[in-house]
Design brief:
It is built from 7 helices and 17 strands. Helix 2 links the parallel strand 2 and strand 3. By secondary structure, it is an alpha/beta fold.
């Protein structure tokens, strides 16, 4: 009895210059696919991006990616997507903060760059799939469709930032690391066994296009400093700031409030009003959110036909919480089984059915258990 051999695909491996994407490309090649490596040049001035341990898009990263491709034995190219990245990710970042929201640029990059601009170009050139080093799993359904699931190792799961992918994008995605029950140390050991120089390279983190990691200074340079009031829930002025865009809901540090709270407890950012440049602060319990409305829903497959019970994740490294969710006039309405804190408009909410990613939407408004004045 014979069985059909796995189909040999033409695969474009997005290689950031880090260890995960290098091992993913190596595994795809080892599986017998025709793999080509590509590094995305995302900055018009690469020196403005983070380098070393903190970067993923610098000149040194492109050199690291090229060396990894040479070791794997695959062709390698650098594609200039700097203009697209500036328009879709960096400009969106400024606009969201200016509007009093808190964006997630990594999620936007996955949506607009790696699985839109990159995938579109790959398909136009005859590639079958784009391969990345993300930790998530794609499951084939009996009908031939594909589902996005959490990684086998929850500690490394990155499905949250991939929740923006639709079924057509999933049909051409490959995540060779997603079903691997290994520690990051074991991934590094595998890279070393394969002779990949990046085996000991530190992970990238934070926002790649903010060179020194100072988000507030980065925003101020573009948006300008604008002094405004910090007020408590009664509207009493308790301090000043140099730009409401420099704050996010749930923030505790960096408030520089001289007047202590009457109860002596810490205060947190409850509301950001770009219209009058005011930041409202108050106690932690005022952050409790019972429901929210999210816009621009994207589904990893067919959209739900009615309200349902799911679990939701509200931040990249957050836990899950039980919710009831459904579409109302094209927007996602979500009610929490228990109040949650620190929900910031502009961030993504990702719905799960078990390990399966149902879809993602951008948080627009929240309902508080205790209304902010």
């Amino acid at each position: 009895m014979t069985t059909d051999a796995p189909r040999r695909l033409r695969v474009l491996a997005a290689m950031s210059g880090g260890v995960d994407s290098a091992v993913a490309a190596a595994r795809a090649a080892e599986a017998g696919h025709d793999v080509t490596g590509v590094h995305l040049a995302l900055s018009e001035n690469p020196k403005s991006f983070r380098t070393g341990a903190r970067g993923c898009c610098t000149i040194e990263d492109s050199h690291d990616a090229r060396r990894a491709a040479d070791v794997i034995g695959i062709p390698f190219y650098v594609w200039d997507l700097a203009e697209r990245f500036r328009e879709d990710v960096v400009e969106d970042f400024f606009a969201e903060y200016e509007a009093g929201r808190t964006p997630n640029p990594c999620l936007r990059c996955n949506e607009k760059i790696k699985f839109a601009a990159l995938l579109d170009k790959a398909l136009a050139l005859g590639f079958d799939a784009v391969c990345t080093g993300h930790y998530a799993t794609i499951v084939e359904r009996p009908d031939g469709g594909r589902e996005l699931h959490r990684a086998s190792d929850m500690a490394k799961d990155q499905s949250y930032v991939l929740g923006v992918l639709d079924d057509q994008q999933l049909a051409h995605a490959m995540f060779p690391l997603g079903d691997t029950l290994t520690t990051k140390a074991e991934i590094r050991e595998e890279a070393a066994r394969r002779g990949l120089f990046v085996a000991k390279k530190p992970d990238s983190h934070d926002i790649c296009f903010i060179a020194d990691g100072d988000t507030q200074a980065f925003l101020a340079k573009r948006l300008g400093r604008a002094e405004g009031d910090i007020v408590d829930e009664s509207g009493t002025k308790v301090g000043t700031h140099e730009g409401a865009y420099g704050f996010t809901i749930g923030q505790r540090k960096g408030l520089r409030i001289g007047t202590p709270a009457p109860d002596g407890k810490p205060r947190y950012v409850l509301d950001i009003s770009p219209v009058d440049n005011t930041v409202t602060v108050g106690p932690a319990e005022s952050l409790d959110v019972t429901a929210l409305t999210a816009v621009r829903p994207r589904w990893c497959g067919a959209a739900p036909t009615g309200p349902g019970t799911y679990t939701a994740q509200l931040r990249a490294h957050g836990g899950e919480t039980e919710v009831t969710a459904g579409l109302v006039d094209g927007e996602l309405r979500v009610t929490f089984a228990e109040p949650v804190r620190g929900v910031a408009p502009g961030q993504a909410i990702v719905l799960y059915d078990g390990t399966r990613v149902v879809g993602s939407a951008t948080i627009a408004t929240t309902d508080r258990a205790r209304a902010v004045a």
